[in-house]
Design goal:
binds flavin-adenine dinucleotide, 17 helices, 7-stranded mixed β-sheet, alpha/beta
Length: 462
């Protein structure tokens, strides 16, 4: 039996166990240790500093941090250290099949999002948790089962299984959460969906790619069912992800492995020509599934709660899954610090997060469709063009959805409501004034918009 596990299960027990030391586990543990003292984090993997096996291998995946994530890192005193390893990005650049490029700024005022290698950020989070008074990290410890009543964990270490009792268990254990499984045994429903596409991480070497593409943008190549996206890295290279349907198309993950390089070169000739190392990666790198998770309940009485992907894994294309998981941890901590007893505090946490999470799950799915559709090059569709004009004419009132999610602390549900209202308004204006309205001069467009809002008693400014 590992000495750490034996120590953790004997005399000086922690009150709270956090299952999972992925992206949200360390954040949750730091918040809770500040409030309650002793917290154990239990993870099946090796410590990221000692990773050796395939499942522990650092991934080249890049993730983006936006306003919700930064607020949490600020509160934990980590923002500066994290920013040092980030690359700022001001927009996304689409590489179209005909060779043209279309740049779309992330924000109208030049705001930036921040790209960071997932394993670098993870390492910083784990190190900070380790340095936090009261936090004890138990790596190489797989939770086999969770009893949410006692509550207790059945944990498998190097030399066998051990039952470890706590007062509260927080499930930060991702898509295949054991803590969620324990809730479903209490009669609550949950669904894990494997999306019909998967992805492979591919690296573009600095000397090949760095010279070609601007390093202040996310680059993507939308090709209908196939999508390649690449983030610049601090060494001048790019980390990319190739998204393909799992099956049902010629270029899909079900195609024979040895055909992938040729199919890739046909779909993305410029990429294949840019780095001849990609072919070897396509033959050997793992294909990763993408899952979504919905769980009817995230909490059980005062003993258990879920955070992050364990209760709401989402399509990755808005770059909000981890940001949202950080926000879960923050709200959980706020509810626990509000003077309520644990059962009421956990119920309040679930209530406060649910509508925002439902919204960002839906928004993320929709955004995938946006990224896989080539942007209109010449004349945008009237509704899209009109929305663009309105966000320019009324910058305070009509804030694009991406800006609301990435650059503000507004709840995702409120952001979604604003977006729906804008869609309804543009549809109404086009019906009333015809498809040429997006070409109208500013005065006319302002007048008809204000009139239309006034008819529905909606003020033109927020
Ligand atoms: C391709 C892709 C791109 C993404 N890009 C972004 C992005 O740009 N921005 C963003 O905000 N989000 C992004 N995400 C989403 C983000 O990665 C997740 O939302 C985030 O990792 C969730 O964190 P988590 O802590 O809930 O789960 P995880 O990070 O998955 O951590 C779960 C942890 O639990 C441990 N565990 C699981 N089961 C057990 C067990 N039985 N016993 C012990 N330990 C266990 C695992 O070992 C793991 O360490 C992306 C996701 C994908 C797939």
């Amino acid at each position: 039996m590992s000495a750490d596990l034996v120590g953790a299960s004997s005399g000086d027990r922690a009150r709270v166990a956090v299952v999972g030391a992925g992206m949200s586990g360390p954040v949750t543990a730091i918040y809770l240790a500040r409030r309650f003292g002793r917290v154990d984090i239990v993870d099946q993997r090796a410590h990221p500093g000692h990773a050796s096996g395939q499942q522990d291998r650092p991934r080249s995946l890049t993730v983006i941090l936006s306003a919700h994530g930064w607020r949490v890192l600020d509160e934990l005193g980590m923002a500066e250290a994290v920013r040092d390893v980030c690359t700022p990005l001001s927009g996304r650049r689409a590489h179209l099949p005909d060779g043209t490029e279309v740049f779309t700024a992330y924000g109208r005022d030049g705001q930036q999002i921040w790209a960071v290698k997932r394993d670098e950020l993870h390492r910083l989070l784990v190190d900070r948790a380790q340095a936090t008074s009261g936090v004890r990290l138990l790596f190489g410890a797989r939770v086999l089962d969770v009893d949410v009543d006692e509550p207790a964990l059945l944990v498998e270490g190097t030399e066998g299984a051990l039952r470890m009792r706590y007062e509260h268990v927080i499930g930060c254990d991702g898509v295949h959460s054991r803590v969620r499984a324990a809730l479903t045994r209490r009669g609550f429903d949950s669904q894990v969906h494997r999306l019909p596409w998967g992805y492979m991480d591919l690296d573009l070497r600095p000397q090949q790619a760095g010279a070609r593409w601007a390093t202040d943008a996310f680059h993507y190549w939308p090709r209908g069912g196939a999508l390649f996206g690449a983030f610049p890295t601090r060494d001048g290279g790019f980390t990319g992800s190739l998204f393909l349907p799992l099956r049902g198309a010629e270029f899909c993950w079900d195609a024979p492995r040895d055909r992938l390089p040729a199919l890739f070169a046909r779909a993305f000739p410029d990429l294949a020509a840019c780095d001849d190392g990609l072919a070897a990666q396509l033959l050997t790198r793992p294909i990763n599934p993408v899952h979504t998770v919905h769980s009817d309940r995230w909490t059980w009485q005062g003993t258990a709660a879920l955070v992050g992907d364990a209760c709401h894994a989402m399509a990755p294309f808005m770059g909000q899954g981890m940001n949202c998981a950080f926000e879960d941890a923050r709200v959980l901590d706020q509810c626990l610090g509000s003077g309520l007893e644990w059962p009421d505090a956990l119920a309040a946490y679930e209530r406060r997060r649910r509508k925002d999470v439902d919204a960002i799950v839906a928004i993320s799915h929709e955004h995938y469709l946006t990224l896989t559709r080539p942007p209109e090059q010449a004349e945008p569709a009237p509704a899209q063009a009109l929305r663009q004009r309105l966000t320019d004419l009324f910058p305070e009132r009509f804030v694009p959805l991406y800006e609301r999610c990435a650059f503000t602390h507004q709840g995702y549900a409120e952001a979604q409501r604003h977006e729906q209202a804008l869609h309804e308004l543009t549809a109404r204006l086009l019906t009333e004034h015809g498809p040429a309205l997006p070409g109208a001069d500013d005065d006319r467009l302002r007048r008809v918009t204000v009139d239309s809002l006034a008819e529905r008693n909606t003020p033109p400014t927020p």
